[in-house]
Design a protein that fits this description.
Length: about 130
């Protein structure tokens, strides 16, 4: 479909948002790792709210991990379409995309420890 040229067209934006939501739904339904990351992120956000810890770093990390997981899912689909048979370059592409999610997940966990750790420790250790 051709664009009407206006970036501020509400109908166009709503249609695009629908496509994006379909991608999120597909990933949540079919990708176990995405479901795990969604719920881990929800837990981290809830914990930050409960502990009155800074929310911005937690939200940024959650957004990064989930975005990379969605990109990984998209890349895997494209690679499978372009190369249905096993190919060393297809493996490299898929492994590198998965590695990006892993690196972001490790970084998010470290941010979680730094941001939530001290408040959680105070809660557990008591006054």
């Amino acid at each position: 479909m051709r664009s009407d040229g206006s970036a501020l067209n509400l109908r166009r934006w709503w249609r695009s948002a629908g496509f994006a939501w379909a991608g999120i739904q597909h990933s949540y339904r079919l990708q176990a790792n995405f479901r795990i990351e969604v719920w881990a992120g929800a837990l981290a956000v809830a914990l930050a709210l409960l502990l009155r810890a800074p929310l911005a770093p937690i939200l940024l990390c959650c957004g990064l991990v989930l975005s990379l997981e969605l990109m990984n899912t998209a890349l895997e689909a494209v690679v499978d379409l372009a190369s249905p048979e096993l190919h060393p370059l297809a493996k490299i592409a898929k492994d590198a995309a998965a590695a990006a999610v892993l690196v972001a997940s490790i970084a998010a966990a470290l941010v979680g420890v730094v941001v939530l750790g001290p408040a959680l420790w105070r809660l557990i250790a008591g006054p």
